[in-house]
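job 3f2a | input accepted
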Amino acid sequence: MPVNLNSGNKISIVIPCFCAENFIKGTIEKTREVFGEEIEIIVVINEPKEDTLLVVKKIFENDKHGKILYFGKRIGKGMAILEGF
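job 3f2a | predicted structure (85 res):
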């Protein structure tokens, strides 16, 4: 059941990713299920491979509330979360 967001406040969810190509789709789908379609999801990809990037690009191709930050190198989970803000 989605969270009630009628307060007018905007919610952004930051998802840091490292080699997440096998589970990021499910994570994004579950996040949308819990929080609804109108929240902003920011996926921060901090890996040298482009596998996760390609998966997330496909998921967000028609999604105006999805954003991708791609670093192409390891910056660590903590820095990825900070970069998402």
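job 3f2a | The mean pLDDT is 86.
job 3f2a | closed
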